[in-house]
Amino acid sequence: MAKALGDCPYCEGGDISFETKSIQGKRTKLYKCSNNKVFSEDGEMWEQHKNSTCTFRIFGNSLARYGKKFIGPKEVTKLLKGQEVTAHLYSYNKKTEYKKYITINHQYGVSVLWEIDIEDEILNDEDN
């Protein structure tokens, strides 16, 4: 495993790090707690082991259906620190790019905050 990205928000004493896994034939990062043990019978479907004491995990390709190819280690580190993380998403139907905040979600790993609009001028202030 790689170096710890931060403390686990779900359990005490757990560290979040990542490893590369293959899902549906594509390699992606799996960010998980050191107390979350996963296994796969077929090398594709990753399940939590019964001896795990934590459920924290984020798959790097979690937002692929929204046009975001991957979630990187820097983004996960920011999420763990409670900082705002902006995702650049793409609508295949409308052929447009848009920006939304993402947050940690206990059930899905990460969630898009659809109800909050991000204005371009806010993003420009962050870049400076």
Mean pLDDT: 86
Radius of gyration: 16 Å
Overall geometric form: globular
> How many separate helices?
2
Which parts are unreliable, with pLDDT below 50 for 5 consecutive residues or more?
none
Count of folded domains: 1
Helix content: 10-25%
Record field, number of beta strands: 9
Q: How many strands, what sense, and barrel or not for the largest sheet?
A: 4 strands, antiparallel
Structural classification: mainly beta
The rounded distance between the terminal residues' Cα atoms is 34 Å
Strand order of the largest sheet: 1-2-3-6
Strand content: 35-45%
Order of helices and strands: EEEEEEHEEEH
Any overview of this molecule?
The protein has 2 helices and 9 strands; from the N terminus they run ββββββαβββα. It is mostly beta strands and 128 residues long. It has one domain (6-127). It has a 4-stranded antiparallel beta sheet with strand order 1-2-3-6, covered by helices on one side. A 3-stranded antiparallel beta sheet has the order 7-8-9, covered by helices on one side. A two-stranded antiparallel ribbon has the order 4-5. Strand 2 and strand 3 form a beta hairpin. The longest helix has 8 residues, at 73-80. The radius of gyration is 16 Å and the shape is globular.
Summary?
This protein has 128 residues and is mainly beta.
List the helices and strands and how they pair.
Elements: E1 6-7, E2 15-23, E3 26-33, E4 38-39, E5 47-48, E6 57-59, H1 73-80, E7 85-91, E8 96-105, E9 109-113, H2 120-127
Antiparallel strand pairs: 1-2, 2-3, 3-6, 4-5, 7-8, 8-9
